[in-house]
Amino acid sequence: MNYFRNLIITARCYSTAKQAKPIKQVDPRRIFKVYRFDGILTKGAPQMKNYDLDVSTCGKMVLDALIKIKDMDPTLAFRRSCREGICGSCAVNLQGKNCLACITEIPPDKKITIYPIPHMYVIRDLVVDMTHFFNGYDSIRPYLIRHDRQKKLGSYQYAQSVDDNNKMVGLYECVLCACCSTSCPSYWWNGRRFLGPATLLHAYRWIIDSRDQDSEARLYDLKDDFAVYRCHTIMNCTLACPKGLAPHVHIAQLKKLISRLTKKPQPGIDTMQFSNTQT
Length: 279
What we know:
Distance between the termini: 75 Å
Number of helices: 9
Strand content: 5-15%
Radius of gyration: 25 Å
Structural class: alpha+beta
Number of strands: 7
Order of helices and strands: HEEHEEEEEHHHHHHH
């Protein structure tokens, strides 16, 4: 018995020793190839500029590296704000994939390329013009619309059941960074009329909100050959989303609502049940 017990202990020790492989040390010195462009009003052409950086001297995220590079070269321009993946300002194209620089770790590659998010007009360096993107977002009326207001808006709470609120999980987390839309080939090809994954995700969010009373008008506005139906479920949007959302799933549900294959369900509770309560 002792023989078998010792044999098992030896086997376990050998297995542990075999699994405990030494961690491969990665050279902290990296070469960052960053897109540089002074803007369309200048005569200069876009170029890639190399920066040799020891990443052990900065934080672990790509944004930390960009801030360190800006200390080396104050002329570098990029957007940033919250550093927590909430504002969506620091979207860039890293190693060919869209991401938020503040929540993306510096890759272990020796050479790291950073471009602005694709198929957007570049204002300067990594800063792109988001006007067209936000014009599309504004067109869906991204706010609650009520037609039966009895009192001044904000004077009472519109009630919503837990189940109705759960329907918006995976929708309201979108931070409008445009990582999904700028990775979508349909948005590249039909950007003037196709609203793109981010905007359509928010359109669906407001349409299914049990407190909103303008769903029919919203669906009518989207009943267009291009606005929604240029989505071919390529699913680049889902792969690119830094928040882990799935826009293609909700766009499919939106198509069903537009084509009358499904209907918006009735609210789970009376939305106006707190209308007589002063806040």
